[in-house]
Every structure is written in C-alpha cells, then in structure tokens.
Amino acid sequence: MAGEPQADCLFCKIVAGEVPATIVRESATTVAFRDINPQAPTHVLVIPKVHYANARELAAAEPAIAGDLLREAGEVAAEEKVDATGYRIVFNTGPGAGQTVFHAHAHLLGGRDLQRLV
Q1: Strand 42-48 relative to strand 23-26: parallel, antiparallel, unpaired?
Q2: Coil, strand or helix: which one is 63?
Q3: Residues 33, 44: contact at Cβ < 8 Å?
C-alpha cells in the first residue's frame, strides 16, 4: 500500500535502520544521507520516511511531507555550507530519467560549478 514501508525497498530499509547509511540529518518525516556514488563534493539524498515510488506520487498523496523534504534539503545545504555558493535539488522520476531506487528522493548537489547539466 502506498505510504507503507516496502520490504524490497533499499530506502525503506535505511529508514528502518536495517541498512547502514551516513546520515547527515533526520526529521520526523525525512532522512538525509550521503550518496554512495557522489556526483559532486556535496551529494546528499533526502528521502521521506513514507514510501512513494516517485516525487509526483509523494506530492499528490502527502504534499506536506513533500514540502518537508524540500525544506530539509535547504537545511542540509546550509549545514554543508553550499547555500551561499549555490546548490541543485534534483528529482529523477522514472527509469528514463535515471531513477534506480523507486522511493521518492531528492539529490542535493553542491560544492562545484553546476552551471552545466549534470
């Protein structure tokens, strides 16, 4: 069921503490952790604790949590000290966009020039 943890979801397992991750921030509704294959000096994933396959589904079903996710991404940017120089928040939605884990998540990227497409 949408919103419920999925036994086969890597990010649900991170939320549950079953899979280790380098957590940088946690709120009542989100978890932020370092990407294991960083594409920039700062590359943090911010995920909702509830399971929805992608950003569209999350925003439609839980708009307040989608807002929490964006706010927390901004807080991570400030903590990582990339807020002054600029950062990017990316949602890959669907396999054609490069989504490989089907649990909504935002990539927070910073710490290098991001003017070109990633």
Answers
A1: unpaired
A2: helix
A3: yes
Between the CA of residue 93 and those of 41, 97, 103, 105, 112, what are the distances in Å? Answer: 23, 6, 10, 9, 24
E strand or H helix at 114: none
What is the length of the chain? 118
0.90 cut: is pTM over it?
Answer: yes
90 burial via Cβ count (<10 Å: 0-12, 13-18, 19+) = middle
Which residue among 51, 103, 105, 107 is the active-site one?
105
Block residue for tokens 């600029």? 86
CB atoms within 10 A of CB 74: 14
What is the longest distance spanned by two Cα atoms in the chain? 40
Dump pLDDT digits (tens) for 11-44: 999 999 999 999 999 999 999 999 999 999 999 9
Annotation says 105 is catalytic: yes
Output Rg (C-alpha) for the chain, integer angstroms: 13
Contacts of 55 (CB under 8 A, 6+ apart): 66, 91, 93, 104, 106
